[in-house]
Amino acid sequence: MLRSKPPASLRASALLLAGDAAFALRDYARASAHYTAYLASYRALREAPRAAMARGWAKLRQGEAGHARLTWSQVADDFPGDARAPLALILAAVAANKAGDLASAQAALDRVLANYPRSPYAGAALLQRSLLALHRGDEKAAARELGEVIRTSGTPVVQGYAAIAAAFATTGAEAALESALPRPPVRGDSLERFATAIIDMREAQTTPPLLHGVALVAANERGWTDPLVDSLANRLVDDFPSYQAAPVLLTRVAEAAAAAGRWPVATRDYEKIVARYADAPAGRRARLALAEALVHAGALPQAREQFRRAALAGGDESPRAWLRLAEISQMMGDRREALEAYEHVPSTLERAPESLLSQARLLQETGQADRARRLLQAAAQSSTGETASEATYELGRLAHERGQHAAALEWFTKAVAAAPDSRSGRLALLGTGDSLAALDRRPEALAAYTKLVDSVPTDALRRSPAHAAEREVAGEAAYRSGKLLNAAGRHGEAVNMFIISAAFFTTGSPGYGRALVGAVQCFVATGDRTAAEAYYEQLQATGAKDPLLGEARRALDTAGVESALPRDVR
After folding, report:
1. C-alpha closest to that of 430 among 384, 481, 379, 490
2. pLDDT digits (tens, 9 = 90+) for 314-343
3. What angle do CA 460, 478, 500 make, to 5 degrees?
4. Measured distance CA(404)–CA(121) in Å, rounded
5. Do 185 and 152 contact (CB within 8 A), yes or no?
6. Residues whose CB is less than 8 angstroms from the CB of residue 86 and which lie 6 or more positions away in sequence, other chains included
7. pLDDT for position 329
8. Where do the domains of the chain lie?
9. Mean of per-residue pLDDT scores for the chain
10. CB-based contacts of 490: which residues, under 8 Å, 6+ apart?
11. What's the pLDDT tens digit per position in 342-369?
């Protein structure tokens, strides 16, 4: 009929029939040619919008997504009042997306929402626009728009979107798409129902980003520790492990669980990421986080094994893994592995002062004072408060051991200033007295010791368990003050300090015994043999043995008057 040059009315029908027949036979090039000829001559006819839509499908089936987009966009331009116009724009957006033209896809969807806000296809347009936002990394916009879809359109929009995806993927499905209107919206649908509808789609390309979007909406509304968020993130990793955002999303869920102290959940999620993506950057980072979660859960052996694996695997996480392996091994009392692991930690790795201090302690315990000194200096320079106080105290102690008393005094002074009420601050004040005494500055040394004794709370004298450490240091300060006073011939003052020292120490402890010996010696020096023998008996009553008891006995034996004590108990 087309070869015989029929009248215009017959030719129009013939072109349309020929195009439909060729399309049915999947001769898309011929179908496209017939639809193009029809539209060139009969654009004003009632069937023109249908022909234009069919031409777009023919172009798409030929693999010309870009031409399909232009054709469908033209439908909305030329036939804006046609019921197919909003659907044509959505198809244009999908075709543009497939062609990688995201800007044109966004523009087409914006036109649907601006020109056809009450169309049954508006929900599908908003859904696709949220996916575009997700694709470009704008999670805030994606969650906002998908949340609106869930509230205003509900699960029917998922079925509509699935039909569009099926039409693009399946030859012949386009006819059903155009003949069936979308289902009426369901307002106020739950996130759980919406997620179930997406899962039921079973469409490999669109299901992952949609589940990702619902997880973001749920996280915004309920928080990242919500069970639905955790479930969706786990499903993405289980069912769609190649989806790029899957490990990232589950990592965020695991991080939120860890921040909330939900260590079993955090551990489970990190373990899954490690199992699925062990060699990928996400997997290597997750292994380190898994190890930290295990530490918090109290599973130190398992944590150490994960740190060891992360360290040996190399990569960006390896230096931090070596450091944590060293610290955990040290915490577990495995000095050998701790020392070996510390050797692998690069000197350029940024470390907390507490970490430097921990390694310095280990080096000091193993007789490596010179190496410890460098770490202590770094910790002292980069910290404040109790950490700085401990680091500078240890530096002072090392200097004192080497006989560098002036340097020791300087470090001790800094330690006291950094945290005067801390344990290291009190020990540093004790060290200050020792250094001053070694420098023959006895009055200042006595002042330092006295200050330490006077700073002890009243509760400490009542044997309060909360002040045991303070009592011990104060007892030592009182004892050393007594020794200085005794050496200076100030025996009366010295005996008072020895008695105070004994009051601070636990009865029967070595410090308690030393204080009683000092008191005996001072009483002998002042000629008060009765008091000396009383304190000797007190020392005996504690079960003290030599050399303490022998030292006290020798002090008594030096007295000019025969002891009144029976010889068998002297």
Report:
1. 481
2. 999 999 999 999 999 999 999 999 999 999
3. 60
4. 85
5. yes
6. 76, 112, 115, 116, 119, 121, 122, 125
7. 97
8. 464-570
9. 92
10. none
11. 999 999 999 999 999 999 999 999 999 9
- For domain 464-570, is the CATH number 2.60.40? no
pLDDT of residue 11: 87
Mean pLDDT of 110-137: 94
Joined together, the tokens standing for residue 138 give 């704008």
User: Is a pLDDT exceeding 90 seen at residue 298?
Assistant: yes
User: Which residues have a Cβ under 8 Å from the Cβ of 388 and sit 6 or more positions away?
Assistant: 353, 379, 380, 414, 415, 418, 419
- Between the two ends of the chain, the Cα-to-Cα distance in Å is 140
Residue 562 — pLDDT band, cuts 50, 70, 90? very low
Question: Residue 452's pLDDT band (boundaries 50, 70, 90)?
Answer: very high
Q: Is the pLDDT assigned to residue 110 strictly greater than 60?
A: yes
Angstrom distance (rounded) from CA 228 to CA 201: 18
3-state SS string for 41-101: HHCCCCCHHHHHHHHHHHHHHCCCHHHHHHHHHHHHHHCCCCCCHHHHHHHHHHHHHHCCC
Read off the tokens for 570.
């002297």
With residues binned 3-state (H G I as helix, E B as strand, rest as coil), the percentages for the chain, rounded to 5, are 75, 0, 25
Backbone angles phi, psi at 419, to 5 degrees: -160, 80
**Chain-centre distance for alpha carbon 284:** 14
Q: What tens digit of pLDDT does each residue of 486-500 get?
A: 999 999 999 999 999
Helix H, strand E, coil C: the string for 177-221 is HHHCCCCCCCCCCCHHHHHHHHHHHCCCCCHHHHHHHHHHHHHHH
Per-residue buried b or exposed e for 233-271, using 16+ beta carbons within 10 Å of the residue's own CB: bbbbbeebeebebbbebbbbbbbbbbeeebbebbbbbbb
- d(Cα 223, Cα 213) in Å, to the nearest integer? 14
- How far apart CA 293 and CA 90 sit, in angstroms, is 46
Give the pair of three-digit tokens for residue 326. 């060293």
DSSP track, 381-394: HT--HHHHHHHHHH
Number of residues that make up the chain: 570
pLDDT at 202: 79
| Residue from 445, 458, 395, 456 nearest 424 by CA | 395
d(CA 154, CA 303): 44
Q: For residue 84, what are the CA distances in angstroms to 74, 78, 80, 142, 500?
A: 12, 11, 9, 26, 99
Count other Cβ atoms within 10 Å, centred on residue 560. 7
What is the amino acid identity at position 233?
Answer: A
